[in-house]
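Dear U.,

For the methods section draft, I wanted the exact inputs and outputs in one place so we can describe them consistently. I've listed the two proteins in the order they'll appear in the manuscript figures. Please don't edit the token lines directly; just add comments below if something needs changing.

First protein:
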Amino acid sequence: FEIKAYQDPYQPLMQTDLMQMAGTEITAATITEVDQAKEESKRDPENINSTTLFGMVIGFTLPPSSYATIALRELTKRPTASDYQSKLEVSGKCERNIEK
């Protein structure tokens, strides 16, 4: 897995095959790059960005007849039902309006 830091919740965290063919680069930074930026921001406090979001990019291989959504549900301990997913929000705490 890899931890990524990013600003825009709609930006991709990894490069797709189509993006590679088109030469499109991603702007998400790996966590080591984020650590370096934090060190630099300590020297320059006005350069700190409070809207940084963090995401995890994971990779795995499943045997035939296995579903990635089930593996992710087990990993995150969150439901994958469409009624639950439709209530999630992009900004803020994504589960703030969902009853627990």
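Second protein (the one for the lower panel):
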Amino acid sequence: KSINNDQEVEFMMSRQERMLAIHFIINSDWERYGDVIEQFNQAYLSGNNNYPKKLHDAYTLLKNWTKRPQKKHVPSKLGLSFNIKGDKDGNTLVLSHPVQDAAAQITP
């Protein structure tokens, strides 16, 4: 099936518009729009091309996008830390590990 020149131009213009929309989203500020970029990328990798087809739609999407609040970094309790205590006579040291509650006695 062949297409005429007008149909070819229309097809080319729609593909160009879609590429502009995709580039607009991909090149947007990662700090503000990283979540939406990741969602589109993951959907695309799954076989779903959900990117907007028009530049105006991409602009509207980002303009109305609300960023989720960042979770505060809470250090994990895993790790290695020791609490050194001496006994009453001062000759024995007790080393304890808070994660495993293991204790070892060291005599100097």
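Candidate sentences for the figure legend, describing the second protein: The first strand starts at residue 83 and ends at 86. The helical segments are 5-26, 30-45, 55-63.

Thanks,
Y.
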